[in-house]
Amino acid sequence: MNEIITRKVLAEGVKEFAVAAPRLARARRAGQFVIVRVNETGERIPLTIADADPEAGTITLIFQEVGKSTLLLGTLQEGDRILDVVGPLGRPTHIENFGTVACLGGGIGVAPVHPIAKAMKEAGNHVIGIIGARTRDLLIMEDRMKAATSELHISTDDGSYGTHGFVTTVLEALVNEGRKIDLVVAIGPVPMMSASTKTAAKYNLPCVVSLNSIMVDGTGMCGACRVTVGGKTRFVCVDGPEFDGYQVDFVELVKRQRAYLKQEDVARRQFLEHHPGERCWETKVS
Amino acid sequence: MPREKIPRQKMPEQAPEERRRNFQEVPYGFTPELAQLEASRCIFCKKPKCIEGCPVEIDIPAFVKLIRDGDFLGAARKLKEANALPAICGRVCPQEEQCEVRCVIGIKDEPVAIGRLERFAADFERLNNLVEAPEIPPWTGKRAAVVGCGPAGLTVAGELAKLGHKVTIFEALHQPGGVLMYGIPEFRLPKAIVEAEVDYVKKLGVEIVYNAVVGRYQTVDELLAEGYDSVFLGTGAGLPYFMNIPGENLNGVYSANEYLTRSNLMRAYRFPEFDTPIAVSKKVAVLGGGNVAMDAARTALRLGADEVHIVYRRSRNEMPARIEEIHHAEEEGIQFQLLTNPTEILGDDQGWVKGMKCIRMELGEPDGSGRRRPVPIPGSEFLMEVDTVVVSIGNGANPLVPQTTPGLETNKWGNIIADKNTAATSKPGVYAGGDIVIGAATVILAMGAGKVAARAMHRYMMGIPEPAPEPEAPPAA
Ligand SMILES: Cc1cc2nc3c(=O)[nH]c(=O)nc-3n(C[C@H](O)[C@H](O)[C@H](O)COP(=O)(O)OP(=O)(O)OC[C@H]3O[C@@H](n4cnc5c(N)ncnc54)[C@H](O)[C@@H]3O)c2cc1C
Ligand SMILES: Cc1cc2nc3c(=O)[nH]c(=O)nc-3n(C[C@H](O)[C@H](O)[C@H](O)COP(=O)(O)OP(=O)(O)OC[C@H]3O[C@@H](n4cnc5c(N)ncnc54)[C@H](O)[C@@H]3O)c2cc1C
Ligand code: SF4
Ligand code: FES
User: In Å, how far is B27's CA from the nearest CA of chain A?
Assistant: First the structure.
């Protein structure tokens, strides 16, 4: 169990693992995540189950190397095992035939939005995919998102590919063209989810976001993941990760995500000292 | 020396000024001489009252006598007839309200130090590698699943294995022990002891599957369909309560569960050698007056805080923590703000705690719990300057298993309803015990429930009819 069957580099600092976890591959639903711990001294970090193959008994994890734990995970090779993988955690996405669903994925957020787009399409929805990245080289999963959606739109912040602008720029353009959208699902960095909610609100579209708060156990035992939704405290790991974007206190979430910046910086620097060049020696292969 | 002249023996322990900055266990334990001296204070009553106070009915005079006579291994074996985890219970049981409070010596003098003696005998056996796994009878052909690897689950698993059943424990976390591992700190219960007890259960043939969150990874119905003949639910009380006051989601506010889990289970006190971070604090306020609050406060001190305050809304007499723990905390320099209730946590513009508004309380009429209700004194508001707040006001039941198990009844607090005499739930073949049934309680009560459940599960799986429910029904054997 937990063996890395395949390992790919999707973009600079973005890796994809297919991990052997047969029961998880069967049990998981779109929108759920796992918590992994790389080794005995490791911390527990949540990662969305980006896809699963029940036949092969594998789940797909796609992660961006942003700090010590994700960098360490990235050093694992095919045949290595991830020490702990626990899941599927969180409530599955509410899948239903809404009509037309716009699935927005920003940066690494494309990975978690992918299974939702796929499930929404399977449920009979017309799925408009809108994915974006800072620049063309950082865009991931374009082919898979094409397959998972009914139509795919792309944006880059610098205009190097697709629409020049943000995923919200594309969403707004589509609405202005007169496209009828019944539900927006937006996943990415908090500013992107907050902006998507604002855009959706402008046109009165319901908007679901998937929150990435700091977690420890992922079972509702610690409360590290708490967020304010509709004025009430909720635990992302058991009450979420998806919530009505209109109700989420994004300002608080951003602050809570920054709780350990100092310690994270120490850990990352220490790691890079011992693994010089860890982030740049591999180049994109697919 | 005549028996009456021997005072209750103290355990040698680390000096407060030394131990407040390290995570090593506080008491060193009795030496053989001290243990024998203490044991000789017992008068071996014909009708020992202490046994009545022990939830698992250890034959206390018998094991104490064995210690007095120098047969330490015999004492350990005697303990284990009734209690599989004596090294743990000797350390964490509230003896002052269980066995020791009933000791007749305690009427005129201080009671026999039963807990310390229990700990001594169990440590003697373990440290001298004299622990022996009993002979396991041939397989009965039955399988049992145990959900949760806390003291309740470990007890059920051990008892069922000794009866010849195959047992698998499913544990949500990556380590065994439940609260023993993630909640109670190293300086009060060394993790090596918990590991040794878990090893013992494994030696009995019990298999432990980690990272298995029942309800998500697999449901109780799936376990029953996949060849388990009965299921025990020992999932504990792991849902932290918050105060519901403004500012509780500021950075630097923790539940005690999170604070202790980061420090104990994830070893954040050894950051950056271990990757999990924890707040670096100067002034910490811990809200609550139970064992959990004492553990959180003493942990904060050991993590390097300059000042640690326990903030509790009633007075010292009402504090639910063990006297020994309050005493240890005080010795280490924890400050007590009694009859004080927080009303708001204040933050800076970056979302970090910078202070806490409190109000003084006075005790009014007794409330439902029989304790005098604290009422705020108008106009007594004041500000405490703190940078970390640990909320330690109790835990509720985690709803995950009940939510995903049709036919499993819970009460209005979400606790699973189980029969007192059999631990049977409303769902056939499914049993429950420990904190998930009775709410946050004690290790020994969780173990007691585990024993009851194991006997009933054995009868259920083997098709033996339930004995008539007499209050003092002898164990089926
Ligand atoms: C439900 C959920 C699903 C997620 N799915 C993905 C995914 O599919 N791919 C992906 O790349 N990332 C995902 N993340 C984010 C990922 O967990 C963090 O990037 C990772 O924990 C960073 O750890 P680090 O040590 O590498 O970086 P650090 O330097 O420790 O942290 C970088 C930032 O990540 C966040 N973070 C740190 N520790 C944790 C933690 N224990 N739990 C959650 N966030 C933390 C903090 O905001 C921090 O500022 C998800 C997060 C959540 C909550
Ligand atoms: C900080 C602290 C200090 C304490 N001090 C004392 C003390 O000094 N003396 C004393 O007697 N008592 C003390 N207690 C109380 C005592 O620890 C508990 O009463 C006891 O541990 C309860 O045992 P349990 O087996 O019912 O549950 P727990 O010990 O809580 O174990 C439950 C286990 O089930 C697992 N679990 C939960 N949900 C699932 C799921 N869905 N699937 C799989 N596994 C799951 C959990 O991860 C956990 O490992 C303390 C408690 C705390 C928190
Ligand atoms: S198990 Fe607890 S109550 Fe029983 S004898 Fe030991 S310390 Fe006393
Ligand atoms: S991560 Fe601990 S409660 Fe959500």
Answer: 28
- Looking at the DSSP assignment, which residues form a beta bridge with residue A227? A234
Query: Measuring CA to CA, which residue among B293, B363, B362 is closest to residue B322?
Result: B293
Measure the CA–CA gap between A21 and A1, rounded to whole angstroms: 6
Which pLDDT score is estimated for B460? 96
Q: Which atom of ligand 4 is found nearest the CA of A218?
A: 1
**Half-sphere exposure of residue B67: CA atoms within 13 angstroms, side-chain side:** 38
**Does the distance separating the beta carbons of B218 and A219 come in below 8 Å?**
no
Task: For chain A, give every residue range classified as CATH 2.40.30.10.
Answer: 4-91+265-279
Question: pLDDT tens-digit profile of B98-131?
Answer: 999 999 999 989 999 999 999 999 999 999 988 8
Cα(B258) to ligand 4 centroid in Å equals: 8
Sheet strands side by side (includes A84-89): A45-48, A33-37, A84-89
Alpha helices (H) along B54-167: 60-68, 72-82, 86-92, 105-108, 114-127, 151-162
**B292 CB less than 6 Å from ligand 2?**
yes
Range name among B133-137, B176-180, B266-270, B325-329 with the lowest pLDDT average = B133-137
Nearest CA in chain A to B270: A41
Give the pLDDT of residue B208. 97
Q: DSSP code of B263?
A: I
CB-ligand 4 contact for A225 (6 Å cutoff): yes
Q: Are A213 and A257 in contact (CB under 8 A)?
A: yes
Predicted model pTM = 0.92
Give yes or no for residue B89 CB within 6 A of ligand 3.
yes
Residue whose CA is at the smallest distance from ligand 4 atom 3: A220
Closest CB to B274 among A23, A41, A252? A41
Is the CATH number 3.40.50.80 carried by domain A93-204?
A: yes
More confident residue, B367 or A264: A264
* Domain A4-91+265-279 falls under CATH 2.40.30.10: yes
Residues of chain A with CATH 3.40.50.80: 93-204
At a CB cut-off of 8 Å and minimum separation 6, what does A122 contact?
Answer: A95
User: Rounded to the nearest 5°, which phi and psi values hold at B356?
Assistant: -145, 130
Question: Beta-carbon neighbour count of residue B213 at 10 Å?
Answer: 24
For residue B381, the CA-to-ligand 2 centroid distance in Å is: 36
Does residue A228's CB lie within 6 angstroms of at least one atom of ligand 1?
no
Token pair of B69, please?
């006579």
